[in-house]
Amino acid sequence: MRTEEILHVQNVSKMYGQLAAVQDVSLSVRRGEIVGLLGPNGAGKSTLIKCIAGLLRVSDGTISVDGFLVRTPEARGSTGYIPEVPSLYDLLTPWEHLQFIALAYGLQNWEAQATELLEQFGLSDKRDAFSGELSKGMRQKVLIACALLHQPSLYLFDEPTVGLDPQAQRELTRQLLRLRDDGHALLVSTHILAQIEPIADRAIIMSHGRTIAGGTLAELRETFQLPADTPLEDVFLQVTE
Amino acid sequence: MRTTPGTNRAAVWYLQKRIIANWLRRSIRSPFFWLMVVFVGFLVISQIAAAIDGPEPSEFAENLDAAYLGTISAIVLLAGILIGLWRGTTNTPGASLADVVILMSSPISPRLSYALLIGRSSVVNGLVLSFWSMAASSGILFGLPDAWIALRVTFSVLIVVLLSEFLRYAVWVGTEQVVASASERGRRLRRMIKIVTLAIGAAAAARLFWPLVGGQAEDWRAAIDILFERGEVLASIPPLSLGASVLMPGGLSLPSALGLVALTAGVAGLALYWARDFIEPIAVNAERKTDPRGQILESGSDVQWAALSQYGVSPRVRTSVQPFGSGAGALLWGSLTRWVRYQIAAAWITTFILGLFGLLAAVGVRLDLVPIELAWAVVLIFPFFGSVNMFMDELRRQFIFLIPGSSWAKLTAGALTSVLDGVFSGFVVIGVMTALGAIPLAQSGGLLVLSLAIALLGQASLALVQIILPFWVGQRARVSATFGATGLAFVPGLLTLIGFYIAVGPVAGMLAAAAVTLVVGAVLMVIAGLLFDRIEFSG
Q: Residue B220 to residues B188, B354, B365, B374: CA-CA distances in angstroms?
């Protein structure tokens, strides 16, 4: 497995006026790795992910994606961002969203893959329906399909399973593993620890804007002197309480 | 991946082209769309016919010194510039969350994304306002010796709107660069621009209105004459002189028009030149629009508060009011406090626009350009169209069904705030018109009572329509059905108004119509209460 870093976050802080949403956070995600970003509400996970996606400015520190400084066109082209709220253009169909992504990212011969993605997520019969008429779960699936289509080096998932039915959750898990096996880097923010535990190579736990723990599950157990069979949920509660 | 400026443009063009095409595809199924097409077609054809036939000047046209049109144009252009400057320092441009997530996180250049935002809002605002100006000028100015005047007015309005919008986007993104690098310095710069804008506005207003305040005008006609004479100085100052020349007969119309176009394009170019590092405030605002209170309450964190506070929007959200009462009373308290908070946040804009509207209507009535009955109709339209209001939102939430209390009481409590909202708009317009002596005091009272009755009728019709229609009926159909039902239910009141107006007089007509309308509204609300258990929610 190649081990080069795709995402490199160095001493990043994000201030809103006097309030520090993210404080001095450093982390990295390597090629072929799934990293779970965990933390209670208001820990700063979503803010950090938006900083990495280039939607928020960092107050201090640097972020690079695939060797490019964040917010450059190259970094944006190397990043796929799937937010918690599935926001699509109501007046575009799923297929038109995929076509826009293909144009925006300069993809060639994308149609077969787009068709396959729609099929995998059970959206084939909704291909030409207006997105405004789709359910929340379906909209989430379209957004994930858009991110999968352009095959970026880094995927940022912010609570990706919220609103998905069990089949789609399983399909998403399968896709995450496939992406990791294909050599992509994945940073997944989630509250559903049981879902991330079997697939994450490492976990980073945030609280009050800071990273308070990080490592493989075995390393976390060792750091906090917990029994070897302690589930991630118990580790998380031990660390954050 | 291989992206170039060419593929960037192709992607943005594709995005907007598909949105417009799909909007048209959906709209052509609506009768309202075809009604508008016929209306616009009629306006354009009537303008061309007027130009060919050279109709007789109307009385208004004969009485109006043509040079005044230039002055009006200059004043409107100045107002557009000042509004653009002001909005550029106060409002973050709007974008949907889809824009943020799909467009702005893609490799498409920020400049192109910003061009799309500017183009979208400018074209929509420009088209809407120039359409209404064409409609208005066709009616009022039809018959001027220069028969193309309506098209020239339309062009002027379009340019003013575009210039104002581009200025707003240029000022905002230009100052945002300073805010991003040094937030305090950026805020100071924005404050300074605001102060300068206010100073120019105040100086222009003083120049125009000072003699009127001093009581130099004997009557309304004289006041208007003085106003226009004083405005001629404004019309000689560049670039306002360009706006004046476009409309003034005998002025340098074509060069002035080209000059205005060049100025507008220059400001747009400036906005695009500065367009970088602007995504954060737009992203935060777009997220806020998706339901700020829900997000904030759910997360229970201070981060979103702080983010919203950074962009000056938190006070509206933060002013949460504790629940009070139970059942229907709690519903009334909740919707009423929400409405009051909204009014506190946005009242100055609403009041300003409505006040301006009242001022124009008063001038129209005082100069005999608009019959007073037309002014009544305009005032009464507010509660009529207000029938699709906050109450519609309440009826789409299951809470109204789940809270304790009788159906009739819950419906009435839920409707009262919307009634207040509909009457408030009319009240401002009536107040200004009455203060300016355009409507006698007794008639104002009658109009207010009738407004109240129509507002209640509208809410009762809305409740009934929402309850009767099955859950799968779409929003547009519900809105149309509500307007249709309100219109039909107002027929007895309207007939009473006409009958009493002819037989007794206007005030008696209004009061009698209000009584009949109230009875009909109460009956509809009782029926809605009886059928309330049939209501269906889409989930």
A: 43, 21, 11, 20
Å between B313 CA and nearest CA of chain A:
13
**Whether A109 contacts chain B with CB within 8 A:** no
Q: How many domains does chain B have?
A: 3
Domain boundary among the residues B318, B346, B367 is at B318
Under 8 Å between Cβ of B276 and B177: yes
Site from B27, B303, B475 to mutate, A interface, most A CB atoms within 10 angstroms: B303
Structure tokens at A240: 């954050």
Q: At CA B229, angle to CA B224 and CA B231, rounded to 5?
A: 95
pLDDT digits (tens, 9 = 90+) for A11-44: 999 988 778 889 999 999 999 999 999 988 888 8
**Domain A1-78+152-164+181-241 CATH (choose: 3.30.70.580, 3.40.50.2300, 3.30.1330.10, 3.40.50.300):** 3.40.50.300
DSSP B490-535: THHHHHHHHHHHHHT-HHHHHHHHHHHHHHHHHHHHHHHHHTGGG-
Distance (Å, whole) CA A7 – CA A88: 26
Dist CA B382 CA B423 (whole Å): 7
Distance CA B69, CA B140 (A): 13
Interface check B177 vs A, CB under 8 A? no
SS3 A9: strand
Chain A residues with CB-CB distance to B290 below 8 A: 85, 87
Between the CA of residue A58 and those of A38, B182, B201, B285, what are the distances in Å?
20, 13, 38, 18
Please tell me the distance from the alpha carbon of residue A123 to that of residue A112, in angstroms, as a whole number. 14
Q: Which two tokens stand for residue B73?
A: 């144009």
CA pair distance B414, B400, nearest whole angstrom: 8
Contact A206, A23 (CB under 8 A): no
B253 and B304 both lie in a single domain: no
B310 touches chain A (CB under 8 A): yes
Min Cα separation A237/chain B (Å)? 18
One-letter amino acid for residue B248 of the chain: M
Q: What pLDDT shows up at residue B316?
A: 42
Q: Which residues pair with B305 in a beta bridge?
A: none
Interface list for A 148-167 with B (CB within 8 A):
150
Within an 8 Å CB–CB cutoff, is residue A21 touching chain B? Answer: yes
Asked if B109 and A130 come within 8 Å (Cβ–Cβ), the reply is no
Confidence check on the interface: ipTM exceeds 0.90, yes or no: no
Q: Is the pLDDT of residue B519 over 90?
A: yes
Q: Same domain for B236 and B354?
A: no
Contact A73 B109 (CB under 8 A): yes
Asked whether residue B173 falls in the same domain as residue B246, the answer is: yes
Task: Give the Cα separation of B165 and B257 in Å (integer).
Answer: 18
Domain range for B295 is 282-318
| B123 has pLDDT over 90 | no
Q: CA of B303, closest CA in chain A: separation in Å?
A: 6
Checking B196-205 for CB contacts under 8 A at 24+ apart, the result is: B196/B85, B197/B82, B197/B85, B197/B86, B197/B89, B200/B78, B200/B82, B201/B82, B204/B75, B204/B78, B204/B234
Q: What confidence tens digit (pLDDT) does each residue in A101-115 have?
A: 999 998 989 999 999
Which residue from A100, A10, A29, A45 is spatially nearest to B304, judged by alpha carbons?
A45
Lateral strand order in the sheet of A154-158: A79-82, A154-158, A185-189, A33-38, A202-207, A210-215
Same domain, B313 and B454: no
Q: What is the pLDDT of residues B82-122, one digit of tens each?
A: 999 998 988 888 888 899 999 998 889 888 999 999 988 88
Residue B330 near residue B324, CB atoms below 8 Å:
yes
